[in-house]
Design brief:
By secondary structure, the chain is mainly α. Helix content is 66%, strand content 1%. It has 14 helices and two strands. The longest helix is centred in the first third of the chain and has 31 residues, at 64-94.
Length: 323
């Protein structure tokens, strides 16, 4: 029997972490009296089957490139249910603690950051608001682009770094959000309609129904297809956005374009995501600290059998970057 492909060994801890996160989330929800819908169970089971199928396909094809592509796809599909469910689980735990929006607003004020004035200013350009709205809601496509790019230039260590960055920031964000829950800037400040006339009515408040139900102990069933982002502090959206250019660092104009996209997404977290400024700062700091820690983990930084430079694409645009 042939030995497992080195990439499979490198990705195995990540996939195991997904399983542990999912089990922990289900346990927390169950203890809180919240059931998981049959549809969610079926969706998670289908995702697990797809993950297994993709891994099997990679093992059959056997080549390094095929294995990297199938494992990347498996890791992307596999992370959706654990991350979504964990957000609800940790928010349910946070119901035991008071909301901290007043604290976050006071921190913003200490640094002379005026949330209401900023939203009103950005609201003055309907085109800018449309751009911010699109970038916020389609951040996932930036993530997919980054992963495809890293597959094309054959950087398994960067792919692993990206996924572990998402997983670890999610875990830390969940714990912090449970201890320091917040409802968000829109419910806290209640801006006048004319100050947000170009901004969608549900911006920054689409999570309120589930968030309040979890805090009031009236949320009874988790449904994966209806899951919303519930966390305000720190901003997980900021972390996801910044992980894109950081994973693509060292590729010249490609990296610059990724940074432009990420910074637009970060800006969008204020008027579209309804985050306090400190939420964004905390999300950014957490991202850099997490990657600094991952840089010290050798089996992520240098997974076995990384493709040799001789097999890399030769196009100048895709020239392998440093580190």
């Amino acid at each position: 029997m042939p030995a497992p492909h080195p990439y499979l060994r490198a990705f195995a801890p990540l996939l195991a972490m997904y399983a542990a996160m999912l089990a922990a989330a289900v346990a927390i929800l169950t203890l809180q009296g919240i059931s998981v819908s049959q549809g969610s169970v079926e969706a998670a089971s289908l995702a697990a089957a797809l993950v297994a199928g993709l891994i099997g396909l990679g093992c059959v094809l056997r080549s390094d490139l095929a294995m990297l592509a199938t494992l990347t796809s498996a890791a992307f599909i596999g992370m959706i249910a654990p991350l979504s469910m964990l957000s609800y689980a940790m928010t349910s735990l946070g119901a035991a603690f008071p909301l901290q929006d007043h604290l976050f607003a006071s921190i913003d004020g200490f640094f002379q950051l005026d949330w209401l004035a900023t939203v009103a200013f950005l609201n003055g350009s309907s085109l800018l608001i449309k751009v911010l709205h699109a970038s916020y809601h389609y951040t996932i496509f930036g993530m997919i682009y980054a992963l495809v790019f890293l597959n094309v230039v054959r950087r398994p260590e960067r792919v692993l770094e990206f996924f572990w960055g998402v997983v670890l920031t999610c875990l830390i964000v969940g714990v912090v959000a449970a201890l320091l829950p917040a409802v968000g800037a829109y419910p806290y400040y209640g801006p006048a309609q004319d100050a947000r006339s170009a901004i969608a009515a549900d911006a920054g408040v689409w999570h309120l129904g589930d968030f309040e139900a979890l805090r009031n102990r009236t949320f009874v069933q988790f449904e994966l297809h209806k899951a919303e982002g519930l966390v305000t502090f720190p901003s997980f959206h900021t972390a996801m956005a910044l992980l894109i250019p950081l994973a693509m660092r060292g590729y010249g104009s490609v990296t610059v374009a990724a940074w432009v996209f990420a910074l637009v997404v970060v800006l969008s977290t204020i008027p579209i995501g309804g985050h306090h400024f400190v939420d964004v700062a905390a999300g950014a700091a957490l991202t850099f600290l997490t990657l600094a820690g991952l840089a010290r983990v050798q089996w992520i930084k240098r997974p076995e059998a990384t493709l040799s430079p001789a097999t890399m694409p030769q196009a100048a645009l895709l020239r392998r970057g440093p580190g």
